[in-house]
Specification:
The chain contains four helices and no strands. It is mainly α.
């Protein structure tokens, strides 16, 4: 259940980045599409699911060591969040009011 929290963090970071570049409708559309994509890939599984934090759910049942999927989920969320926040800060500094 912890990975649902990580999925939300990633969605919020992506929405914050997109809101600086696009309008409200585009930001909402891409955020919903991203959430649906993350949900569908975690259900399907496979190597593509590893691109998203909740894709590591398949390892919670298969591997007895809980730290491997937990570390993978946190690492991928941290990577995407740092990238989105860095790009958001860089874009925000260039905005003129």
């Amino acid at each position: 259940m912890f990975v649902i929290f990580l999925k939300s963090i990633l969605s919020i970071a992506a929405a914050a980045f997109l809101s600086l570049h696009f309008g409200t409708g585009a930001t909402m559309g891409v955020s919903i599409a991203l959430s649906l994509t993350m949900t569908i890939t975690s259900i399907i599984g496979g190597p593509v699911a590893m691109l998203f934090p909740n894709g590591y759910n398949q390892f919670f049942n298969a591997i007895s060591d809980i730290w491997i999927p937990l570390a993978g989920s946190v690492a991928i969320t941290g990577l995407y969040t740092v990238i989105c926040n860095y790009l958001s800060i860089k874009t925000f500094k260039n905005l003129e009011f």
